[in-house]
């Protein structure tokens, strides 16, 4: 399993499900839009603190961002 790919896919999936643009989501999470973009494009690794901020902003349990639904 490529954890970065799974995480990126799940962040984008949950973000679009709640209808937020990258910019609006980044603001809600307290992160920069280019950082969110890089995560969704699998270009960035991510600190655990930011994983939690992203999960909180998405309104999902943290572990859901790491589940490969394939």
TrEMBL record:
Pfam families: HTH_3 (PF01381). Residues 11-65 form the HTH cro/C1-type domain. This is DNA-binding transcriptional regulator, XRE-family HTH domain. One of its GO terms (molecular function) is DNA-binding transcription factor activity. It comes from the Bacteria. Keywords: DNA-binding, Transcription, Transcription regulation. It comes from Alkalibacterium pelagium. One of its GO terms (cellular component) is cytosol.
